From TrEMBL, chain A:
Lineage, broadest ranks: Bacteria, Pseudomonadati, Pseudomonadota, Gammaproteobacteria, Oceanospirillales
Organism: Marinospirillum alkaliphilum DSM 21637
Residue ranges annotated for the Ig-like SoxY domain, each copy included: 46-145
Location of the Sulphur oxidation protein SoxZ domain: 167-254
Sorted UniProt keywords: Signal
Keyword field contains Signal: yes
Name by which UniProt lists this protein: Sulfur-oxidizing protein SoxY
Signal peptide: 1-27
From TrEMBL, chain B:
Gene3D superfamilies tied to this protein: FAD/NAD(P)-binding domain (3.50.50.60), Flavocytochrome c sulphide dehydrogenase, flavin-binding domain (3.90.760.10)
Signal as UniProt keyword: yes
Entry superkingdom: Bacteria
Protein's UniProt keywords contain Transmembrane: no
Alphabetized InterPro entries for the sequence: FAD/NAD-bd_sf, FAD/NAD-binding_dom, FAD/NAD-linked_Rdtase_dimer_sf, FCSD_central, FlavoCytC_S_DH_flav-bd, FlavoCytC_S_DH_flav-bd_sf, SQRD, TAT_signal
Keyword terms of this UniProt record: FAD, Flavoprotein, Signal
UniProt domain Flavocytochrome c sulphide dehydrogenase flavin-binding: residue ranges: 366-435
Sulfide dehydrogenase [flavocytochrome c] flavoprotein chain central domain residues: 174-290
Residues annotated as domain FAD/NAD(P)-binding: 43-158
Protein name: NADPH-dependent 2,4-dienoyl-CoA reductase, sulfur reductase
Signal sequence region: 1-35
GO MF entries: flavin adenine dinucleotide binding; oxidoreductase activity
Length: 262, 439
């Protein structure tokens, strides 16, 4: 009996071991994460969306994030949005990128808040309802030599900044960087007296070319203070680009730049 | 045993326990045996004679003198980054931050070879040196510190560093920056481009800004310090900024990432930089601290990951990727431990103990580490941050809750003076522990 046992057990153990090795360390969690599940219709593709975050971040208050669509779309279809979610923040939403027309490209960077070690999920949706998903784990450690300073909670929007390349070429992707000063107070943080600081967020940033909305970024509690968005445009016509930030109180701030191609 | 194996061992244990089949364990753990070179207690080669490497070499010998230990380091003299900011301020000479390998050779019997390690063959267990020689090892320790990501900032490469020094490895670069500061006319602006995380010595840039402000206040009273930062927060920020106000008024200006502080382009010949949103700054002295990665030998050994740093098993500091290669110091991913000399020294000891044990076929206890980073605002104004680190249940490094902390805000001048004296005490102690230098 014992003999039979060991003879069977060894291959069995090897099998178990092989099974364990082949298991990914962390099962993909978008399948189990309700806020993402609520957005999913059908089966999203797992190839075609590239999400980049550092493996380890020493400052969870501003973790650099990039997302890029590399998949292919059917004739006539167009990407509608890329939404970014945090699986272990108090609120799931981090930021949404919305493509109002095809001149805005799905190649974006921003800075996000991550409360702790967790997975970050990106979900892209096309107008025809096709979807792509990508997921990355980020380990968040606050280095012993890094102490955070407190931002001013009640400040409004200030210092909108836009950077355009010096030479803009028709039909070539144009990299645009945008930044605005704002505390992005989450409404979850307590002041020294123990009271919650009221929520104070910028709602969105809309980019228009000659009055036509082209791109929009929607900000949430998961967006870092001083929202930063790096985006790409492709156009073959000169236009006036207007960047408009609107906060929760409906205050607006606008910056304009001439897009003049060579 | 590598981390991969460890992880699976843990998983297997859990699974087997769950399956009520704990009796399988003995069958599975037969893979743990270690091969040691014939005849000796084992051969260890250590690459890098800095904080991590010199410490590891010494403590392996202390743990078991019969182990054959070779240290590979190109320089005969090691200059520490710690206290090099005092050299920049003219408060210390290079001599007082220099160390050598005589104690390691003469007292501990470490063989020291002055050469650059150029390549590793992890299968054959060999290391190729710049001299053409090849060394055989049973266990390899890498403590190569950092290398720079040249051209990550447009225009900042090795040539540019001869005009606009980084001075982030101590030695000729420290002296170059010192000479430039001395030659600068009063009324000039010293500009520092500070990097994003992770990088060597999180409080280092801000200590440097302080020490240069100190030098200016003594010798060039109309001159300014401008820090252009790729971060919004930095180490001991509150203490630094209030001390700057208190000691230097508005001599030091700090521009955060969100205020367009990130330098994206350098013109070293003109000492000009351009930030992300197009602001141009002209410096009298330009100091660019570029983004960093593990020293190149780590990549050659195949131990780095996509971040350019080395993931390790924190129990032993053995590479997660390659068996029998241990990596310590700045090259590793050991956060929340900072990339400090103190941490490299502590990690060197953990790796030494693990190597001695593995060559003897035994195991080590769970390690813990301590770190203190002192920073000088002026020669008699010190601040510090301290932490104790241990492993959590998932074998990850965490800061022991409630341990450490930073110097109090608003402390008396005598408190700051004492901390500056402790900083000197720390420096002397770690120099003696690492290289046997008696200061
Ligand atoms: C301005 C400044 C101030 C600092 N102040 C402090 C402080 O006050 N306290 C503190 O704890 N830390 C401080 N640090 C940080 C500290 O210097 C580093 O964390 C420490 O040096 C890391 O040790 P290491 O062994 O990883 O690398 P290093 O000490 O840099 O040693 C690496 C060694 O490896 C050698 N090497 C590299 N590649 C090879 C190769 N291929 N072959 C052979 N040899 C090689 C190098 O020549 C070098 O000698 C400071 C750093 C700076 C820049």
């Amino acid at each position: 009996m014992i003999q039979i046992h060991t003879r069977f057990l060894l291959p069995l153990a090897a099998l178990l071991l092989a099974f364990l090795i082949s298991l990914p360390l962390q099962a993909a969690s978008w399948q189990q994460f309700a806020p993402v599940q609520a957005q999913i219709k059908g089966t999203p593709a797992s190839e075609g969306l590239q999400l980049e975050l550092p493996l380890v971040s020493e400052d969870g208050s501003a973790v650099p994030l990039s997302v890029r669509f590399t998949g292919s779309l059917a004739e006539g279809d167009q990407l509608e949005s890329i939404r970014i979610f945090a699986t272990a923040n108090p609120n799931a939403e981090i930021i949404d990128f919305i493509f109002h027309d095809a001149r805005s490209l799905a190649d974006l960077s921003t800075r996000v808040r991550l409360n702790e070690t967790q997975n970050v999920i990106a979900l892209a949706t096309s107008r025809n309802g096709r979807q792509w998903v990508a997921e990355r784990e980020v380990r968040v450690t606050v280095s012993g030599c890094l102490m955070r300073s407190d931002e001013q909670a009640d400040a409004g929007m200030q210092n909108p900044r836009i950077a355009l390349p010096r030479r803009l070429q028709a039909g070539q992707p144009i990299e645009i960087r945008t930044l605005i000063s704002h505390p992005m107070e989450t409404g979850l943080r307590k002041a020294a007296d123990g009271k919650l600081l009221p929520q104070n967020l910028i709602h969105n940033m809309v980019l228009e070319l000659d009055q036509q909305p082209v791109f929009e970024a929607r900000f949430y509690t998961g967006t870092s203070a001083n929202p930063y968005v790096r985006l790409h445009l492709k156009t073959d016509q000169n236009a006036m680009a207007r960047f408009r930030w609107t906060d929760q109180q409906k205050q607006q701030l606008e910056e304009a730049r001439e897009i003049s191609l060579r | 045993m590598t981390t991969e194996q460890n992880k699976h061992l843990v998983s297997r244990r859990n699974l087997l326990k769950g399956a009520g089949a704990a009796s399988l364990l003995p069958l599975l753990s037969a893979c743990g045996a270690t091969a040691i070179s014939n005849g000796t207690a084992g051969r260890v080669v250590v690459v890098g004679g800095g904080f991590g490497g010199a410490t590891a070499a010494k403590y392996i010998k202390r743990g078991n003198p019969a182990i054959d230990v070779t240290l590979v380091e190109p320089s005969k003299t090691f200059y520490t980054c710690p206290f090099s900011n005092l050299v920049l301020a003219g408060e210390r000479s290079m001599d007082t931050i220099s160390h050598n390998y005589r104690e390691l050779e003469q007292v501990y019997g470490v063989r020291v070879i002055h050469a650059l390690a150029e390549d590793v063959d992890p299968v054959a267990h060999t290391l190729r040196l710049s001299t053409g020689r090849t060394l055989q090892y049973d266990r390899l320790v890498l403590s190569p510190g950092i290398d720079f990501r040249w051209n990550a900032i447009e225009g900042y490469d090795q040539q540019a560093a001869e005009l606009a020094p980084h001075a982030w490895k101590a030695g000729p670069q420290t002296l170059l920056l010192r000479r430039q500061l001395e030659a600068m006319e009063d009324g000039g602006v010293y500009i520092m481009a500070a990097p994003a995380n992770p990088f060597r010595c999180p409080p280092g840039p801000y200590e440097r800004a302080s020490m240069i402000a100190h030098y200016f206040s003594q010798h060039k009273p109309r001159s300014k310090v401008l820090i252009l930062d790729a971060k919004d927060n930095f180490s001991k920020q509150g203490l630094f900024t209030s001390a700057w106000k208190e000691v230097y008024g508005d001599r030091i200006e700090w521009v955060s990432l969100s205020n367009d502080g990130r330098v994206v382009q350098v013109d070293a010949a003109r000492r000009e930089v351009v930030t992300e949103f197009g602001t141009r700054h002209k410096a009298s002295v330009l100091n660019v601290i570029p983004p960093q990665k593990a020293g190149f030998i780590a990549e050659r050994a195949g131990v780095t990951n996509e971040s350019g740093w080395v993931p390790v098993n924190p129990r032993t500091f053995e590479s997660e990727r390659v068996k029998d290669i241990y990596v310590v110091g700045d090259a590793t991913v050991a956060a929340p431990m900072p990339k400090s000399g103190f941490a490299a020294n502590a990690q060197g000891k953990v790796a030494a103990a693990a190597i001695v044990a593995s060559l003897e076929g035994t195991d080590t206890a769970d390690p813990f580490w301590a770190n203190t980073c002192y920073s000088l605002i002026s020669p008699d104004y010190g601040i510090s941050v301290a932490g104790v680190y241990r492993l959590n249940d998932e074998s990850r490094i965490i800061e022991t809750p409630g341990s450490g902390g930073v110097s109090p805000a608003g402390a008396a001048a005598s408190f700051r003076r004492n901390e500056a004296a402790y900083a000197v005490g720390w420096y002397n102690a770690i120099s003696q522990d690492t290289w046997g230098t008696r200061l």
